[in-house]
Amino acid sequence: MAQAIAETVFDILYLCFAIFTGLIMLLKGKTPLVKKAGWMAFLLGTGDSFHLVPRAYALWTTGLEAQAAALGIGKFITSITMTVFYVLLYYIWREHYKIQDRKALTGTIWALAILRIGFCLLPQNEWLVYRQPLNFGILRNVPFALMGILIILIFAQEIRKTGDTIFRFMPLAVALSFGFYLPVVLLSGTLPVIGMLMIPKTLAYVWIVLMCRKLYKNSCTY
User: Fold this and answer.
1) Count of Cβ atoms closer than 10 Å to residue 15 Cβ
2) Which of 37, 63, 180, 213 has CA atoms 20 to 30 A from the CA of 24?
3) 197 near 180, Cβ under 8 Å?
4) Is there a contact between 154 and 105 (Cβ–Cβ < 8 Å)?
């Protein structure tokens, strides 16, 4: 019961924050850059809700294993939306730092995103069962992790070059999100307590959204 209460309260606060922050930037944002940030935050919240809402329902009713199909479908949807999240973050990077050309980099980001989504669509993932195959969990996260590494590197490069303060901690936030997430992928099947790392991983995404929210606040001052 304690787990159900703690997780539900945390998830409600997180989802409301991401969705409403995204909606505010979408509806009130004055620039395409702010609206991209709005879409990114809104997608984060709505995508994660497909997994977190069934999880909360399962914790309060019949348990996680009994709701395996709903949780699996939610996890599948979240896997797709998180991929799009990082594509949007890439385009926020391009627009914020006024990046021109870099066609090879853009092609790489898109190729990794398509590869990730393609791996997620394979039936071998067995999304509807409670304990899904570890090898496909690793496989579908390889291109995702590579996307994350690229995002870290390109933000760090531009931050050093420009002295930007808005996204000063973006490389750290993205690194933390993956640092907390990957052990869950690898070990949660044998060590369920590792799943607790999803809480700091979620907080890292809150940090990313808060940084993007600065774009909206800055645009409102002009």
Assistant:
1) 19
2) 180
3) yes
4) yes
The tokens of 141 are what? 């996260």
Q: What is the pTM of this model?
A: 0.93
What phi, psi does 190 have (nearest 5°)?
A: -100, -25
Task: Tell me how many domains the chain contains.
Answer: 1
Q: How high is the pLDDT of residue 221?
A: 57
Residue 29 belongs to a domain with what CATH number? 1.20.1070
CA gap 19, 31 in Å, rounded: 19
Q: How many residues are given for the chain?
A: 222
Q: What are the residues whose beta carbons fall under 8 Å from the beta carbon of 41, sequence distance 6 or more?
A: 18, 19, 21, 22, 25, 209, 212, 213
Q: What are the average pLDDT values for consecutive 10-residue runs of the chain, which has 222 residues?
A: 84 96 92 94 96 89 84 94 97 95 95 97 92 90 96 96 94 96 83 84 96 85 54
The rounded distance, in Å, linking the Cα atoms of 11 and 172 is 23
From CA 82, how far away is CA 143, in angstroms rounded? 12
